[in-house]
Design brief:
92 residues; 3 helices; mainly alpha; rod-shaped
């Protein structure tokens, strides 16, 4: 049986999905990396922790804005990082 011919609109949707997936994957990965960096900075302690936390919050907001992650998920992750930072500050 011959391969089924796809409609032009279907081909366009496939291209759009591939492009969107690639863009969102980059945003999601950047957010994850920033969160990991912030957690590591908190574990070590030091002056760079606050900058790492700010960068993580920014990356999460950016990812949520472009739809790479849900906005409530971004808020929850930001809250958890802030909570960990407050706990680290309290013990130090």
């Amino acid at each position: 049986m011959a391969a089924k011919k796809r409609k032009r609109s279907a081909l366009k949707r496939i291209r759009q999905t591939q492009r969107r997936t690639a863009i969102k994957t980059v945003g999601r990965s950047a957010a994850r990396t920033a969160v990991r960096t912030a957690r590591e900075a908190l574990a070590k302690g030091g002056d760079d922790a606050s900058a790492a936390i700010a960068a993580a919050a920014s990356a999460l907001d950016r990812a949520a804005k472009q739809g790479a992650i849900h906005r409530n998920s971004a808020r929850r992750r930001r809250g958890r990082i802030a909570k960990a930072a407050a706990k680290a500050k309290k013990t130090a």
